[in-house]
Amino acid sequence: MANSPDKHSQHESLHQVGLGKILALLVVVFLGLVIFAVGLGSSSLRTRDSFQILAERLPLIRDLVPRAEIADKYRVIVFQLRLPRIILSSLTGAALAIVGAVFQAVFRNPLADPHILGVSSGAALGATIAIVAGLGTGALGLGAVGFLAFIFALATIGLVYTSVGFAGDERAISSMLLVGVALGTLFSAIISLLMLFNNDEIKRVYMWTLGSFNSASWDKIRFFSLIFLPCTLYLVFQGRTLNLLLAGEEEAMSLGLEAAKVRKRLILVSSLLVAASIAVSGIIGFVGLVIPQYLRILGQHDLRRQLPLAGLAGAIFLLLCDTAARTLLNPLEIPVGIITSLFGVPYFIYVIVKQRLQDRY
Mean pLDDT over residues 78-90, rounded? Predict the structure, then answer.
């Protein structure tokens, strides 16, 4: 009996080492993918040249790497076009995957995704208004479309909260979902009405709702980072709390957790992160659904492990999808939401069928 605490500590230590190794592997994969993606496009670069161009801007590495004989136009392409897109798609993928994992725990539903509360529909309405009104300037480093999408997404969060008089208990959660669905239907109807009277703008609205990073910029990265960093750090460190919520409200309360208050904060922070993601990229589906599900299939049920892994896996997944979107039919670009849907829809059907079979047997 005297040795049991030591054995427990040893088990926890091994557990953490295992997580560290997986994270290190994912970081290596991600960095390799960044270097590879930088070289892809209408003006292709060798992997070695991509690495040298990137290394020139890294303080600890640039002195070790000789300046390459590469035309300056490639440096402009990398730092003004490709790298902002790579960074923004990676951050967005990480945000959506983490929020997906959080929502699936908070709502105790493996099919919950970041758009479940109708935030994306509100953002789509804001973007549609900006497009049909022909607005050309915005704020916060965003264009008019992204800015209005962000404002309307925040307004939707406020509407959902005030409509329910959110108390944070499980009954209020169910009401939030219903209000989110109702608002989503209302906003979709208004969007359809606007499009009916603005036929010339239908394609732009449609393309925005499919998501894209073709307007990525350093200004958008700065805006998104201000929300991404504090929100994701907060959510990632809530793994133990989310484990308790998954165990059930009674058990959580018996362990001293104020489940209602915690749930309110988690939903609010997550919704803010989703609103910012949509503002910089449009609506991108299935990232927040597929990544947490896949990690659970690999045995990562503990949210303390799942959340940081979801962030890195989401970044890798969306970067891969966006790289495919801009290169597969070059010079034609495929909206990245189409690529994520090609992966996500079959998996979504698989999860539903699997659940039904489990319920039956």
Answer: 92
